[in-house]
Protein 1
Amino acid sequence: GAVVSQHPSRVICKSGTSVKIECRSLDFQATTMFWYRQFPKQSLMLMATSNEGSKATYEQGVEKDKFLINHASLTLSTLTVTSAHPEDSSFYICSARDPATGYEQYFGPGTRLTVT
Amino acid sequence: KQEVTQIPAALSVPEGENLVLNCSFTDSAIYNLQWFRQDPGKGLTSLLLIQSSQREQTSGRLNASLDKSSGRSTLYIAASQPGDSATYLCAPGGATNKLIFGTGTLLAVQP
């Protein structure tokens, strides 16, 4: 199946700093990628839809100025958590849709963000 | 607004048992439904994708069914193994390709 990677897998940062997370589709071109966050023992919550070459679409309640999304190429989307605070600590997961297989979404391994 | 519920929330079975995981969703206007497994601290692995026009999909010991009109899907796991222990998530997808995730079923298969 299609492979999606994320980098870094874990990151610890100090409060007030910014952190960038990369999501790559390794063997297919993804015009659309999605970003989720997951709190401990909870399900995934969709944050935003990232479209190549255009602005991301954010879900209700997600601060677009805090969670900056850039989808500059067909294989790379980035999520930047700006001015991170401890409440931003979470597991961030991206997914990418492979048009060749219909609407199936493939997920990255996730990034564990800890803000101290 | 789509709401997805999975029952049971947790399940513990001895190795070799056949089992059924249930997923219900409130908005039947879906394009597809995916089942995933998630191991602790890991990302999601796609198990099966059912298009809205299909009634079931099979992959190895896994069989997923979809009753779109009643807003239900089930995942059947045959001859369960300890390696099947994980959290199983269902996610119906709408016209915008967004997936709305259920609360998950935590499965433990005892050797």
Protein 2
Amino acid sequence: LAKTTQPISMDSYEGQEVNITCSHNNIATNDYITWYQQFPSQGPRFIIQGYKTKVTNEVASLFIPADRKSSTLSLPRVSLSDTAVYYCLVGRMDSSYKLIFGSGTRLLVRP
Amino acid sequence: NAGVTQTPKFQVLKTGQSMTLQCAQDMNHEYMSWYRQDPGMGLRLIHYSVGAGITDQGEVPNGYNVSRSTTEDFPLRLLSAAPSQTSVYFCASSYTQGQRFGYGYTFGSGTRLTVV
């Protein structure tokens, strides 16, 4: 399983764009990149998933460069309710039952 | 509503007691798993199952048992509770083989367990 490295914490202000970068230098050809969000006292919630280039949904965008050794989760115009822990995970779609969570990035959005 | 249901939400046990944490999903997901999350930490995989009758160990399986007799249910048993098992437990489910891209795992709301 590819190991991931994320910043421990980030601060932002309401209305700003937030970019959280995850490093996964030993990502394998069949690995996908998935991001989850977790609020206090709740289970993680799936945000976005990608393989290469750019993926966008109603919540976020995921940017993956050609070498796939890193990925960036982009949250446009954050609000106070985006304060949460964000996890980057890397794994194969057919073996994701061994998906391992790291410590994540604690995002604090200030007014 | 479709999703993952965990019961109970809160539980206090005495050291040495046993109990079962329940997890049920109604999305016909093949894969189910249990994680524990200690304060300020990430999630650690305890046990997982890729289908009825099939289970395997994760990162921290000691002190826990699981079984998967149906697709819907995946209970977690604490054999003899210890204070080190005080944690929040999350159950998750997803598709496996030919997993549907863009869906990820669905997590339950958690069981907060305290062992005194």
